[in-house]
Amino acid sequence: MNNNETGTFSDGGGDWGQNEGSRDSPEENYGYRDYDYDRYQENPPVEEDGSGGEEKQSFWRWMAETALIIIAAIIFAVFLQSFVVKTFVITSTSMSPTLKEGDRVMVDKMTYLFRKPRRGDIILFRYPPDTPRAKSTSNVFYWPFERMGEVLWLTHKDTTPYVKRVVATAGETVELKKGKLYIEGEEIEEDYVSDNVSDFGPYAVPEGTVFCMGDNRQCSRDSRAWGPVSTKSVIGRLFMIWWPPGRWGKP
Fold this sequence. Notes:
This protein is α+β, with helices and mostly antiparallel strands. It contains five helices and eleven strands. The chain has a domain at 83-247: Umud Fragment, subunit A (Ribbon).
C-alpha cells in the first residue's frame, strides 16, 4: 500500500517532471493544447505592404513638383524678357557700321524705368504704335501688358521693332547741315556715322519724345521721315552685341 502510494507518487512525480521540462512546448503546456498557437501556425498574419501606394504617391508628387517648376520657369522667363532684358536680331543696314544686318543684340528694358533716353543711346522702339491711344493713354497697365503680349507672341506678330540712335531729346533743336549734326546750333562730333551730305531742319523736339536717326544716314528712314518717337514707344536700350562671337561687345 505504501509502496503503491510511493510508486504512484513517484510516477506522478515523473509526470510532473516531464511536464515541467516541456513547459515551452507549443504542443503541451501543463496538460492543455495551445490552440491559439496552432491557428497562428496554420494562418500566420500577413503584413500589408504599402510600398505600392507610396510609389504611386511619390510619382504624382514628382509630377506635381515638376509641373510647378516648369510653370515657375515660364513665368520667370516671360517676366525677364518683358521687363528686364531681351534679345533681338538686326534686320537692316540703317545702323551700319555700328550694327550690321544679322547681328544678335541684347536690349536692356530696366534703364528707362529710372531715367529718360539720352543723346547717343541706341534704342529699340515701335513706330507707329498699334493704336493711336498708345501715345496718350494714362492706363498704367497698358504698356506692361503690351510688353508681355509681345514676348508671348500675342501682339506685334508681323512687325519688327526699329533700332536707331537718339540724337536729340525733348526741348532741343536739331539740325543737319551737309551731314553734320547740330544741337542748339552747336556741332556734335559723331565718329560712328557713315559719310553723308544730308540736310534737315532745324526742328524743335516736343516734350515726351526723342529724335532718332540711323548711323547710316544715307540709307535710314527715321525721325526725319515720320517725326519724333514717343518715349512710351521705346522698348529698351541696346547695350550689347552677343553674336557673332567676333563682334561681341558694346556697340
